């Protein structure tokens, strides 16, 4: 029987379960999860995978390998409904019948790092930045941010030359203010400086984090998720139901959580294949497949406005 290691997340922190095997039953897993928290066995709700989806734990006799669990999986433990009169400071209940033991990872963080989905409307970068700065999804913030970027680029033609922008400075300034134009690394760097905050872009295609403003020693950091085409903001869902989007730059625990999220997303192939995704030219309405075809179309026609499709 192969031993499996599972990472368990709930709103009170993170834990690692090492002593179950692929032959252990769902009932045994539920006993462990209940002992880990104040959630009764009958109220346990589990999410797994990326993006998280419900895990079927309705049959206590099923083995873990039969419900698709394998070593390295991350489980998110939730409660089916709010339980009244819960004693939050109650010590952890001992495991029954010696089913399993666990070890806690350092001091538990009271929350889970989550993705907030924003519309794929070609302004997803700006909407995501607006969310991490203000805590709400506002699809109109892109207009101001595009103006900020255009003014910055126009004021420094030496730095933002044609070689950097891929087009003449004035053309870029007109282009970026169009609602159909996408934002990327140049735009993130400018907005990081303007707002005086480090912007960490979690790249799920390459499982890395690109930090904009890292050299400025900003005191605060926000996180954005990038799948190769689309941006979404990341936030910490706290145990009291609150949402945190801005973190101290020295908080490396949340940074490591973001790194792990990038690796989990890549291993689950939650990224956009740039050679296969579909675009639509917003000038001539032609559909294109992949970035190479889009670049070829732009070179041949001088059309540079593309939309996600």
UniProtKB/TrEMBL annotation:
Hydrolase that can remove conjugated ubiquitin from proteins and may therefore play an important regulatory role at the level of protein turnover by preventing degradation. GO terms for molecular function: cysteine-type deubiquitinase activity; zinc ion binding. Its EC number is 3.4.19.12. Pfam families: OTU, OTU1_UBXL, zf-C2H2_OTU1_C. One of its GO terms (cellular component) is cytosol. Residues 4-84 form the Ubiquitin-like domain. CDD domains: OTU_OTU1, Ubl_OTU1. Keywords: Cytoplasm, Hydrolase, Metal-binding, Protease, Thiol protease, Ubl conjugation pathway, Zinc, Zinc-finger. It is found in: Cytoplasm. This is Ubiquitin thioesterase OTU. GO terms for biological process: endoplasmic reticulum unfolded protein response; ERAD pathway; protein deubiquitination. Transmembrane segments: none annotated. Residues 113-237 form the OTU domain. Its main location: cytoplasm. It comes from the Eukaryota. It catalyses: Thiol-dependent hydrolysis of ester, thioester, amide, peptide and isopeptide bonds formed by the C-terminal Gly of ubiquitin (a 76-residue protein attached to proteins as an intracellular targeting signal).
